[in-house]
Fold:
Amino acid sequence: MARSAVQNEQMRDERRQAILSSAVRLFATRGLAATKVADIASAVGMAQGLLYHYFRSKEEIFVEIVRQAFDRMNTAARELERLPLTPRQKIERAATTLLRTLEEHEDFAWISVLISTASISDAVPAEATAIIRRERDVPYRVVARLARAGQRDGAFEGGRPDDLALVFWTTVKGLALHRLALGAAYKSPDPRILTRMFFPETRA
Amino acid sequence: MARSAVQNEQMRDERRQAILSSAVRLFATRGLAATKVADIASAVGMAQGLLYHYFRSKEEIFVEIVRQAFDRMNTAARELERLPLTPRQKIERAATTLLRTLEEHEDFAWISVLISTASISDAVPAEATAIIRRERDVPYRVVARLARAGQRDGAFEGGRPDDLALVFWTTVKGLALHRLALGAAYKSPDPRILTRMFFPETRA
DNA sequence: GTCTATATCCAGATAGAC
DNA sequence: GTCTATCTGGATATAGAC
Structure:
């Protein structure tokens, strides 16, 4: 029956997402190699062997996490760019949203750290490395374009747009690391500390 | 003979340092679990079994790296604090030195990333975790004290000293990640982008 | 779909010759 | 001190019953 086939497909997808969601925090806190398939299975509440009905291997899970993370991040970055706001407003919104998300959703920090470490690891599936190389520049370029546009408008201070984008994103990544080190005790700093890089006249 | 005993001790130390030095970059790029003892041994040019004459286990190597890293970093931070400079000069020197070291010495980035990831990992030797918990706040507190002193002098802008210290160090950590992702192509941004968080009037 | 049991492989650590 | 050979444990992935 077509009906139950569709339902089955949906249930399968949900189960796969549950596995991915459990795997993210394990991969982020232990790394790919130190995370046992048995750990993931037990975190999601299934037998170790069953996991192989949903994914072909531990590495496939890892690749799928990386793929989805870039899908979401880069979509969000492109949508921000298209909003009817001034460059300055877009930068401020990005900083505010990112720091709030970081504080409220630990998942965001896990994924950020997972990608950060995967970016420099050579013990990661080749397909993950390929996705990272292909996608990682998108958010940097968006912020750099905003910085350039803001400087043309005279709204921003100097500094090379690429430098500003670099420091902007590396600070976010660094805060994600810190957020995981501190756990629930973490509080994001005032976003103006970040935007002040772009607008030195900003008062705190 | 006492003479050759001393020499032997020294040679042993040098050999141990060579092992640590090779292990750092492997641990940083692959993580503890994915780094094989055979990899370390071959990087330093010795047989796998011989490595156990210098260290009792792979984990002991890891702990020793963490211990030495904090020794150096925290010593440097405390020495900076004691220099006969104004708070502002100390912040500027720290930013300049860190960004230059990051660019010139890849080792510094390796160690930074190793510590960052170890800080949030629960797949790391308990002794390493203990050292990290005990030592990690030192550099943050030094910068926070400098920020507080600068604000008293009226040299710095507002912002909570703890926030400033947090963003300062997380940016450095974030840049270390970036430096490894980019390899030799990496160029540190202008240090004024960093110090501008403390002194908003700084022009680029 | 789900489980238990197991084949297979691989890496850490040790033993023992030189 | 240095090597080669090996023991041993543990983790991935598969097989096969339910």
